[in-house]
Amino acid sequence: MASSFLHLFSLLLFLFIPVSSQLNELFFPGFKDSTTNITLSGVASFEKNGILRLTNETSRLQGHAFYSSPIQFKNLTTGKVFSFSTSFAVAIVPEYPKLGGHGLAFTISPSKNLKSLPSQYLGLFNSSDVGNFSNHLFAVEFDTVQDFEFQDINDNHIGIDINSLTSNASTTAAYFTDSSTKENLTLKSGKPIQAWIDYDAAENIINVTISPYSTKPRLPILSFRVDLSPIFQESMYIGFSSSTGLLASSHYILGWSFNINGPARGLDLSSLPSLPSPKKKHLGLTIGLSIASVILAISPELPKTGKATTSSDVYAFGALLLEVACGRRPIEPKAAPEELVLVDWVWDKYREGKVLDVIDRKLNGEYNEAEVFTVIKLGILCSNNAPMSRPTMRQVVRCLDGEVEVPEIVRAPDAVDSGKGTVEGFNELFNSFASSSFDKMSSHSFVENGATFASLSTSPLSLLPVRRETG
Ligand SMILES: *[C@@H]1O[C@H](CO)[C@@H](O)[C@H](O)[C@H]1NC(C)=O
Ligand SMILES: *[C@@H]1O[C@H](CO)[C@@H](O)[C@H](O)[C@H]1NC(C)=O
Ligand SMILES: *[C@@H]1O[C@H](CO)[C@@H](O)[C@H](O)[C@H]1NC(C)=O
Ligand SMILES: *[C@@H]1O[C@H](CO)[C@@H](O)[C@H](O)[C@H]1NC(C)=O
Ligand SMILES: *[C@@H]1O[C@H](CO)[C@@H](O)[C@H](O)[C@H]1NC(C)=O
Ligand SMILES: *[C@@H]1O[C@H](CO)[C@@H](O)[C@H](O)[C@H]1NC(C)=O
Ligand SMILES: *[C@@H]1O[C@H](CO)[C@@H](O)[C@H](O)[C@H]1NC(C)=O
Ligand SMILES: *[C@H]1O[C@@H](CO)[C@H](O)[C@@H](O)[C@@H]1NC(C)=O
């Protein structure tokens, strides 16, 4: 009697838990068995080990992952939005160290089929609906590119977005270690970061908290006062959106929990599926052996000195920048004679004030002009025939990071040969560049500093044996 009563009780309990959890609470400690619960679109995919990958490292992609069923977000009697809470672990792995784009966002949307654009639109909006109140879209963006169009504060920020990519509130990615100490956190470090988003419907406060650890910091990094009731519809889809631009990152979600009217279950970073082991960022392997061999062939001082210098790497990197912006190989055998060597063609167009002509047509004009201009100018600077006239890799990275402006005036790649200024002139242009040069730092010290630039200090010359082996 007693045992069958207990049995009935446990049966009731069994019936009760799935029902309540289906309505309000989601918990995905990885996505191995979740393919039926999550709807993917764009290039989003589940990796074998249960990681959700929103984008890969190809330019101008978008990826979406939404919980398949809509969530009831409002009290039907009062029309007031419920409190909600979510936690998830993300990792942003840039294509080249420090060079990644664009970012990802947790989003609450009336639809899981967004008619959106990649790049600065993060797969959330398109150029005609961005900013329109009828979007009813809420997002918390983890943005790794500074878009002036949307008044981004920097290229490493978290923002609360309502119907627009111009954030209602944003802050540099960071976390509190105690009640007064803040630590910056690089979103595109390639390492897992846990995020918590908590909305208190009684107080009308949304809090965002991040940490590189499993434990939630006591203080949020971003708080914004808003009543989401007029923004949300009664039922909404919840999920993630991500995009790549000219520069690309792999954007991963490692785990996710969500709850209505209660805290989301915590995630333990150590028990989530692990990221694919980092690719060896060997310049040659990254950009393809054929391109590397072309770079090797055209890096002009190599045949003369026969010696590998870091300046050759800058040259190779310049070729890569131009290649990305123009969507072409450094040498395009099928092109018209004046377009044969990419850097010469780009320079001619630059000089004529027609830079837009060289930009990859596949971009359909949907790019951030400032971003492309910076990349092209740097590409030209790095391609200077004279090694001493090239910027150091450190200067290049600081420009791409937006720490220093790319020089206003860019000289011809053969400027030195034609007798115009030399290194001094160049360093004046980078006047805010304080420290000495990349050349003085060993690749070893770069690794120690946490930046994985060892690859870029590998000379193209060292690719020669690789090239021979693979024929
Ligand atoms: C996911 O789907 C499975 C079966 O389709 C179901 O048993 C499970 O409860 C769902 N999980 C969530 C969090 O919705
Ligand atoms: C990224 O995904 C797209 C679409 O699935 C694919 O065409 C492309 O080859 C992938 N890129 C890489 C680097 O895996
Ligand atoms: C909706 O609000 C009414 C009035 O405040 C309350 O009685 C009811 O419990 C709420 N319903 C839910 C599902 O929270
Ligand atoms: C932009 O998005 C809206 C929906 O928000 C859609 O109606 C419209 O067709 C989209 N425009 C383009 C050009 O995709
Ligand atoms: C906002 O979107 C609605 C519905 O798509 C449209 O009717 C309206 O014209 C748009 N408003 C603006 C300012 O674009
Ligand atoms: C954190 O990042 C901000 C914005 O980039 C910067 O101003 C600040 O100096 C950084 N703080 C530390 C301690 O590095
Ligand atoms: C938001 O953060 C503040 C501290 O800044 C805290 O007092 C409040 O309880 C938090 N609310 C939620 C919903 O997390
Ligand atoms: C963000 O909040 C919404 C809702 O209050 C407003 O409608 C937007 O105008 C506001 N956007 C910005 C950029 O402040």
Helix and strand topology:
Layout: H1 2-24, E1 26-28, E2 38-42, E3 45-46, E4 52-55, E5 62-67, E6 71-72, E7 84-94, E8 103-109, E9 138-143, E10 157-162, E11 169-172, E12 174-176, E13 182-184, E14 193-200, E15 205-211, E16 222-225, E17 235-243, E18 249-260, H2 283-287, H3 289-298, H4 301-305, H5 310-326, H6 342-351, H7 369-382, H8 393-400, H9 423-429, H10 443-448, H11 464-470
Antiparallel strand pairs: 1-18, 2-5, 3-4, 4-18, 5-17, 6-17, 7-14, 7-18, 8-9, 8-17, 9-10, 10-11, 12-13, 14-15, 15-16
Helix pairs in contact: 5-7
The chain binds 2-acetamido-2-deoxy-beta-D-glucopyranose (NAG) (8 copies).
Q: Could you write a compact summary of the structure shown?
A:
This protein has 471 residues and is of the alpha+beta class.
- Could you estimate the helical fraction of the residues in percent? 10-25%
Distance between the first and last residues' Cα: 79 Å
Radius of gyration: 25 Å
* Percent of residues in beta strands: 15-25%
What is the mean pLDDT?
79
The profile of the biggest β sheet is: 8 strands, antiparallel
Shape designation? elongated
Low-confidence parts: 1-22, 281-308, 417-471
Number of strands: 18
Ligand inventory: 2-acetamido-2-deoxy-beta-D-glucopyranose
Structural class: alpha+beta
Tally the helices: what do you get?
Answer: 11
The run of helices and strands is HEEEEEEEEEEEEEEEEEEHHHHHHHHHH
